[in-house]
Amino acid sequence: MRIAVSAIVAAGVGIAVIPSGAMAAAGVPTFPDNLVVFPNRDFVTVEGYQDHIGETAIIEVTRPGVGIVGSAAGVVAEGDVAFEVNHPGGYCWGAGTGVNVTPDILPGDVVSIRFGAEPVAQTVVGDAMVTADAVQQGTTVTVTGHIGATVDQANIEQRIVEPALTTTAVARRDVRALPGPLVPAPRGGYQSGLSITGDTFTATYEFADPAVAQIAANAGLGERLLSWEQTDPDGNRQGLTIAEFGEPGGPGMGGCPNGPLQSGPPGPTGVTAVKVAGGVRLNWTPAVAIPGTPAITGYRVTAVAHTVTGGEQVEIGRRITGQAARGTTITGLSATEDYDIEVVSMSSVGLTFPPVVVQAQTDVTPPTVAASLADGSYPTARQVTLSANEPGSEIYYTTDGTDPVLADVLSASAILYTGPITIAATTTLKFAAFDLAGNVSLVGERNYTITNTPTPDAPTFGTPVVGAGQVTLNWTLNDPSVTGYGVQVFDAAGTPVGNLRETTATSMTITGLTGDANYSFTVQARNVNGYGEASPRLGPVTIQGAVVANAGADRAAVARNTTVTLSGAGSTTPATYAWTQLATGTTNPIAANDPDRVTLSGASTLSPSFTMPFYRYPMTNKGLTFRLTVTSPAGSKSDDVLVTPAVDRVTIGTAKWKANDFRITGTGSFVGATVLVHVGSLASPAIASGTVVAAAPPGIGDIDIRLRNGAAPATRPTVIFIESNRGGVAGPFTVS
To answer: Which member of 224, 296, 332, 730 lies 3.0 to 4.6 Å from 244 by CB, making a disulfide possible if both were Cys?
Structure first.
């Protein structure tokens, strides 16, 4: 069912602010979605997420105890790979987010994906890696490496990748070793196993031919270690880290930002420069180093004269130590010269480039000062924050009722404002500010009465229960002083509806509301001292009308060739019902010739059914949308439900042709699935079919289709595609 009854938070592209040491939690991706991390190359592949095609996703790398050290925004594209970060054809780190540094991804970092404010999935980078080149002794090749205590020892696999192996008895581009004793490889040519002692693993390969062993041992940068967080029931490896021995880190393509040890620090913000007697006074907001980059150690400020004499310009400046510095004054400037003021941050890797440039201004306008707390009576102590509209202004205040400034001169009782002021008793607060140019503001005044009669905190709402023309609210508050509660109703425009509704219970049913309209609600608690502050608003909540349509909850990963029964339970009865399938991504009825169209049985009942069909191109794996329309004498209402098919995964490992012989091998994630082979495109007629059969560990299923003699193509096909009747598609793949 698609009707939301709780508040919806709209979030745009941007960087979530995560305090140092804190991270928003998310689960491991669920197949067919995945986040695959290549820490050596600082590269991330986003797989799946096909229910978000066209949407912008935010990828963030968060380091425990540090915060976000890298991020990028990317648009989800159709296909197995939604998009990639720091890989040719993909997005640079910093794209769309402003965190312009390529992170040095380390074990323990958390790579997450979000489409709004909160991450929807994450991969924790595995602490497991190859640490040395492969070693050959005769027909034996060994690879050693590190495995940390946080890595599940059952969820690792060592591989040596070398395309030259495809022409040997191995017959594939890599060899693989899983934890356990030596076992024969599924396609022959070698045996392999992997042992673990403490935090060290050793992968052992025993080849039948020493020449093949030499090819594997000399694979260059081919040694890698795969580790993953979970294996689902279909054998899919979720939350995958692929550590590639010897691969360099940093930018993966031209134009991407440097790594943390090659990037100059960001400059300070909010820089202002004001002419003062004898020079220029500068003020700024301190720069903050991008997490994972060297600390900012200070600033350099330079006044560059406009006049050029003999090809030279005079520079006068200051170096300021400390990241927290907020300003400085440059003296010794000529009163008849104009200057550009350049400000840069400093760190161990260099200076901000380009610098922040400002021109000094003549300021004759006095500042203004605001107080965060309005005049009034308060039951308990409060804090007041003072702020000036001009950066760098100094604010002074008094709490004894006297003026802090007399004839533009500070009074003896004036106190320099350095932070929030606690008002614990009845107080007259007065305040004024001097800006950088010496202009003084008017004196402001606030009068506060503190009664020391505390009222309760705001209660917390639970999930509302919506009915026809009514809603039942519930809330909690752990405060024994509470004697009752008050609920205020607001319409869609935010206007109060009626007076405060009072109760002594922690729930209330509000009736007489308009059906199909949106409302919001606040609740506040009272004790002997009166009502406390109201809660944040709950809503918008959509009230049921005279007619209710409920198409049920969305369903995901529905197996193909199974019966799906829809349910309109919760809809108005008696009534007439009509279920219609909509074209994917639209509100229009699906066309009769649409390849995703299914036949609904019992479309005029509350519980129709259909068969999720086997996949066949040009069908898609997108969700099927069904609309339930309920009609009664009181009117008509509709609701939609989305049913998304489960999709297996198929790959092409080899495709080899010679006269009278054409062979295709690969893998499949669903044993028993039927696979069709197409030449040139999926739209072309299938030239062969096969079945996914059970594979030897660690695989799930193997594909091996061979055409001989007259069944084989007469000439070598250029490229092929394969499709599974369970939805998986692979290709184009070049035939050798």
So the answer is: 224
